[in-house]
What we know:
about 750 residues; transmembrane; 11 strands; membrane; single chain; five-stranded antiparallel sheet; about 5% strand; DUF3160 domain-containing protein; DUF3160
Amino acid sequence: MEKKKLFLVIAIVVIVLLLIAAVMALVLLLKSQRAPVPTNLNEAAPISATTPGVLPTTPSTNTTANGQLSGQAQTLQKEKQFISSYYQPVDAGYQATVTGPSLPLQNAKEAVVNYRDFSRKLDVEPFLPAVADHGFAIIDAPFPGEAANWQDAYAAINGKNLPVFVTSDALAGVYQDTLAIVYKEIEQQKFYPALWNFLHGMFNQVKSRYEARLQRFGIETDAITEANRLELAYLATALQLLRPDPNQVKESFGVSQQSFTTQEAETYTFTVPTYLRDEINREISLIGQRAPSAKSPLFLYQQSYTAYATPAEYQSSEKLKNYYLAITWLREQQFPLFSQADDCPACLLDEQDHLVNFLAGLYLTHDLSSQQERKNQWANIYKSMAFFQGLESDLTYLDYQAALETLFGPNYQLNDLFGADSKTTKENVKKIQAALDQFESFSLLSGRQPNDRLANLRLLRGYHLIGDTLFKELTNATALDVFNLLDNPAARTVLEQQHDDRDQRYQQNLNNFKNQLAEFNQNTWHDNAQLSVLSAQRSLTLDKTSGFPPFMRTDAWVKKSLNTSLAVWVNSHRPIVLERVPLESRSGFQSYFPYGYVEPQVAFYAQLLSNVNMIREGFIALQILNESDRSLLRLTALESVLEQAMAIARKELRNELPSIEEFNFINGFETSVESVTGDLKRQNLNNSFQYRYDAVPTAILNEQISGFKYVLVTYPDPEGRLFFAIGPIFNYTEGKNGSLIKAPWQRALGL
């Protein structure tokens, strides 16, 4: 009897253990089927076509086993490489066969299947007339505690358990946020040490040459010696601005390093030569004062120092602050092509001072061109800035080097060209000036006209985007002019309605710019981030709307897309402050919710994806990024988001129902945003920005994005039944002289 009891107890224990094991197995299985949780951006994780929020790594192809650059990497001529050459268009094909009720809707309450459930969570009664007319309505501030960034906006929709509408605004906004973050990461992590090494190597070479020549000539005036001295002072000032001050040194811990470490302070040490100390100290004092106008102690021309006021996006770390001052110095200081004696009263220098300055620019050109490694170092910095920020297409050291080699052969010697008699020196200067005066570029991209006597050499060209030229040349300028230039029919219609006072010169200048645009090739359109997104935005205006959802076939939606384009253009100017935070942990199940819609702009998403692929491939090829870099992982996550949005949009247009995973992507879009930008301080990603352009002849132009409005759409399922879904769009406004007022076409739609 006792044995039977013992067997019974054992049997019960075994059964209990089996039940516990079964429960644990079930829990693990359910966990594996949850919506994907974004991984830490510092960690590697596998990725699939349907999984947002994970960032993979692959072995680097640019380094050997011991971490040294491969032979191919060492011999790469980066000055001849262009990010845009890596552009390969992604297939943007689709088949549009969407069905659905015709507009206007006779009774929206009956026509929209989920009207009752939706209206209990969000009052849509006031917007039913617009829904009936256009198939969509714009809602202002539908949620308490209004969100100002994409992640919070979609979290607010999820908090109400409403079907999500993934807007083209959101995908463009996340794309732009990602590129801005990647650029800041490259600046802080890559370019500070790269710029230091570049400048320090140049400085040491010039210092040896100058001191040898100084020993030879002593106090006697010699143009070449003075030019070497100016070049040396130019480089020394940049290094002095870049080096850490003692009060900037502090050990930092955590995800964000705001100060220089003790080790960095020891690495980045620099002492200004005593014979340059007085002039450089006076130069740096003017920089510190942000003097509105003063004569440069080194360059001997009058200039403004206001550009040295450090913007907010460069104040998040001491390294970025110093980096900003150094690159501003390299961008602001110029070596003019002509002097006042060259029939140029507005030129900065007289003939004698110009000769020293001009020769300094030539020696700077030669020193930079003489070593491939040095050219590669500078190309990494220059090409990254040119792509992400847009630099004027104008004379660089490469143009000067080409002119010297064409005129005097590849083995030219500057000391021989300018160390003989004064007459020979002047003749050679004239030859070089004449050759460089032939330089031509699109005025849209350079900001100056051909044969401009104010041409100059700058090691780093100034920031320039097409709007800078456009607004300067067009009367009564507006952001709509950018899209009129791109032949956007909605922009043209609005301009015709709003402006009847345009003079004949406006149309002449616009036609001139359109002729320039017609000469742009695929590489030109992808030379910088803003041009790349402008090129993509052209596809937001659909040539044919047949087979698209009913709301996208309306003139009202064309205006909504114009609003998106204008806002995205403004957003391309918005800087981001790089401050990292730990990623939030997520737990819980994402329940299946078979509702929601992606705005089916397949061609637009395909072009954005092509741009991301281009950036990734180009920056890997130039060895600016490697496969383990956080920035590259971020770009890979963005690729995944765009790929999924495009795949779902294609399905919608084919009148097919998205899969469970695809509905999870739609209704969990906030986690997709988090996968790309979730390690950044959330308020730094807020869509609040005002862009001001002061050079408009008639008025100051103000462009603003301020948080979100929301678009309520009626989307059809494969059976043609209509459902409500809601998503955030940019809140965009334009004004002049500080006044920001919605335009009539925006007010008519509630935009």
